[in-house]
Amino acid sequence: MRIVLVGPPGAGKGTQAAFLAKNLSIPHISTGDLFRANISQGTELGKQAKAFMDAGNLVPDEVTIGMAQDRMAQPDAENGFLLDGFPRNVSQAEALDEALKADGQKLDAVLDLEVPEDEVVKRIAGRRICRNDSSHVFHVSYSKPKQEGVCDVCGGELYQRGDDKEETVRKRLDVYHRETEPIIDHYKAQGLVVTISALGKVDEVTKRAMDALKGDK
User: Fold this and answer.
1) How far apart are CA 37 and CA 63, in angstroms?
2) Which of 125, 135, 136, 173 is least surrounded, with the fewest CB atoms within 10 Å of its CB?
3) Which CATH number fits the domain that encloses residue 23?
4) Does residue 120 lie within any of the structural domains?
5) Annotated binding residue at 46?
6) Per the domain annotation, does 69 fall within a domain?
7) Ligand-binding site membership of 86 (annotated)
8) Candidates 2, 13, 71, 208; catalytic one
9) What does DSSP assign to residue 143?
10) Which residue numbers delimit the Adenylate kinase active site lid domain (predicted)?
């Protein structure tokens, strides 16, 4: 299956992408991984992306699209892939349509993870990270530390990242609504969109997604 995963920040796309890709035996292709791989390998596209990022600028669509096309052409993606974070706007979606058409391929589904905006803010703004080890993550509502402000694992101080503050989260949501959400209508016109609720436990959302992709909505 060839799938695009879309949803607002905090919808759990990365988590669901990993589980879905494993269940469907297809590679999970995320924009972040594409950038990291190309930059670390010193590819021409990676050098271009790094130059823009070092200058504090957004990486142009054509560079991101080029990386995605290269990755989708790899042998492990021959029988499908799951795209996470790409396309992020309508022009990228149109470029993806053209690239797949040129290869005689097409998307099978666009999985839209739906989460109420207030829940997104609660999920992200409630995160607390350990200053000693950023892999130690807690949440003021869903995964409370035994002692407020103290990491259960190492005793380090827990803090709220700047990116997780409510004001920043709402700005990220504004960008999502303005730039990325329109791709849902783009794909609805092609009859590809499958919308599911991303509320609940991780395994519940994964089952919901698998059922929807199989047509058991």
Assistant:
1) 14
2) 135
3) 3.40.50.300
4) no
5) no
6) yes
7) yes
8) 13
9) B
10) 127-163
Q: Is 200 annotated as a binding residue?
A: yes
Within a 10 A sphere around the Cβ of 100, how many other Cβ atoms?
15
Active-site position among 50, 88, 170, 207 = 88
Is position 13 annotated as part of the catalytic site? yes
Per-residue model confidence (pLDDT) at position 103: 87
Distance CA 151, CA 17 (A): 28
Compute the distance between CA of residue 163 and CA of residue 91 in angstroms, rounded to an integer: 27
Cβ within 8 Å of residue 215, ≥6 positions away: none
**pLDDT given at position 57:** 86
**Is 52 known to sit in a ligand binding site?**
no
Please check whether residue 162 lies inside any domain of the structure. Answer: no
Percent of the chain with pLDDT over 90: 91
Provide the residue range defining the domain that includes 199.
2-115+174-213
Active site residue 88: yes
Active-site annotation holds for 170: no
Catalytic residue among 47, 131, 144, 161: 161
36 is in an annotated binding site: yes
Active site residue 131: no
For residues 137 and 11, give the distance between their C-alpha atoms in angstroms, rounded to a whole number. 17
161 annotated active-site: yes
Q: Which of 2, 71, 128, 172 is catalytic?
A: 172
Q: How many domains, in total, are found in the chain?
A: 1
pTM: 0.88
Residue 57 labelled as part of a binding site: yes
